[in-house]
Write a structure and sequence with these properties.
39% helix; six-stranded antiparallel sheet; alpha/beta
């Protein structure tokens, strides 16, 4: 068997910062193997072939710990495979007090025998260590490992991070992993950040920690964060704190904030109409209409005041549409799908006439009373998702308060605002008589 002296000959350790993406300061340093004549993976593979895998990993951890604790109270992360972690060699090398130490699990072996290592993980956590999982998002095995370990730190695979600012699918997956991390009490760390745009997108997605060449390259002694990268982190946080519109992104949190900011600054129905492109983007809709509830002499009607062609939209009596009246009274939402044969025939005709396939209706209520109706249209024949329904209700709360204070529709018509591009016609239907019992779904 190869001796420990042979194993460690020519082996050095380099440290790379794991950076707080809000402040630009090192949060931890990862200790990285630097063999003299082979790549780290080849060096470890050779040691395992010679029957010295756990001993090699234990000695590498020892070298990393000899460098002392990082400056500024930062944590120290060391890599260890699942099989070596439970070995006597690694257990003997680890100090009793593991406070300030991150143990980063580097292999997918754990998915085969996750339960056998839980006792070791519980002991290590009890001694102060944090557990990290590498390469999350690289495939099913890595995600299964995350579920088994419930780590304190989830490190996103560099392939998921690369070009994230250009790929909505990557954004969606990181958002999902971020929600998982919040619910399980973990934090995300993005590996392989190489561009400022990637850094900015990840910070906006609430990924708290990042690592990569753009932030800092590995070095034998505690490297500092690149000044431009640290500045980008601080300026990103400062921008988020400043009052006013933030740059419009394509993920939900930024769209919600940008829309809420614009709605809070509306002073006319023309202003409200100008927010519709953002609202359509947030709800993934192809068109929408916002109507105000008027009640002259106890005969309430809905008058469209914002939408694709709101100047030409007719008003309609609530009494003529019993189902709409019920929605306004209860606050419940409703949807109509083109493929739903049980839906109200008048709403199906409305969808067909306008080349649409789905309609969602959200009552607008303020002060315990109905004040209007939000209608959202789609050209796809698919149900609205629960998230879209929740987002629409959130927007409806803003709209309800806004409609109570904006000037009347007749005053807004004089502005002559044409609205955003979208539907050419919304209600090309004759008025339904008051005795029509089918109602408006």
């Amino acid at each position: 068997m190869t001796s420990s002296t042979d194993i460690t000959e020519g082996l050095t350790i380099a440290y790379q910062p794991m950076v707080d993406l809000q402040t630009g300061r090192p949060w931890a340093y990862e200790a990285l193997l630097r063999p003299e004549s082979a790549s780290p993976s080849a060096w470890l593979a050779k040691a395992r072939r010679e029957g010295a895998g756990p001993v090699a990993e234990a000695l590498a951890i020892t070298l990393a710990l000899r460098g002392g604790r990082p400056p500024g109270g930062a944590l120290l992360a060391v890599n260890v495979s699942a099989s070596a972690l439970a070995s006597d060699a690694v257990q003997r090398m680890l100090p009793r007090d593991l406070s300030g130490l991150i143990l980063e699990i580097t292999e997918n072996e754990l998915v085969l025998h996750g339960s056998s290592i839980q006792t070791h993980l519980d002991d290590l956590r009890g001694r102060g260590a944090l557990i990290a999982v590498d390469d999350a998002g690289a495939g099913y095995a890595s995600l299964r490992q995350v579920m088994l370990l419930r780590p304190d730190i989830i490190k996103l695979d560099r392939e998921l991070v690369s070009g994230v600012h250009l790929d909505p699918a990557k954004v969606a997956l990181i958002e999902a992993l971020s929600r998982f991390a919040v619910r399980t009490g973990a934090m995300l760390c993005a590996e392989g950040i190489e561009h400022e745009d990637e850094l900015a997108t990840l910070a906006d997605l609430d990924v708290p920690i990042g690592q990569g060449f753009y932030l800092a390259r590995p070095h034998a002694r505690w490297p500092t964060v690149a000044p431009m990268a640290a500045l980008a982190c601080r300026e990103g946080l400062a921008s988020a704190l400043r009052h006013g519109d933030r740059p419009l992104g394509d993920h939900v949190q930024i769209l919600q904030e940008a829309l809420a900011a614009r709605l809070s600054n509306c002073t006319s129905l023309a202003d409200l109409n100008a927010t519709l492109p953002q609202l359509q983007l947030l709800l993934q809709a192809d068109g929408l209409s916002i109507s105000r509830l008027e009640d002259p002499g106890g005969d309430p009607y809905l008058q469209t005041c914002a939408g694709s062609v709101w100047e030409d939209e007719p008003c309609y009596r609530v009494a003529d549409y019993p189902t709409t009246g019920a929605l306004l009274r209860t606050g419940d939402a409703a949807q109509v799908l083109r493929g739903d044969t049980g839906a109200d025939e008048h709403e199906l005709q409305l969808l067909h006439t306008n080349g649409l396939a789905a309609l969602m209706m959200i009552p607008l209520r303020a002060g315990g009373q109905a004040v209007g109706l939000l209608e959202v249209f789609s050209s796809e024949d698919r149900p609205w998702t629960r998230q879209q329904l929740t987002l629409a209700r959130t927007v409806a709360h803003h709209l309800a308060t806004l409609l109570r204070h904006l000037p009347a529709h007749a005053q807004a018509r004089a502005v002559g605002h044409s609205g955003p591009p979208g539907l050419t016609t919304l209600r090309a239907l004759p008025a339904i008589a008051a005795n029509d019992t089918a109602g408006r779904a």
